[in-house]
Amino acid sequence: MVRGVNHGTGKLLPFLGMLVAMLTQSGSMVVIKFAINDGINKYVMVVYSMVLSSFLLLPFAFFHHRSERPPLTFSALCSFLLLALFVSSAQIMAYVGIELSSPTLASAILNLVPAFTFVLALIFRMEKVQWRHRSSQAKVLGTTVSIGGAFVVILYKGPPILRSHSWNTSMKLQLSTQSNWILGGICCIADSFFTSMWYIYQASIAKKYPAVTVILFFQFLFATIPCGIFALISVKDPTEWKLKLDAGLSVILYQAIVATMLRYVLCTWCVHKEGPLFCAMFKPLGIIFTVLMSTIFLGENFGLGSLIGSVIIVVGFYAVLWGKYREKDIEKMVENLESSCPNVPLLENRA
Question: What is the pTM of this model?
Answer without folding.
Answer: 0.77
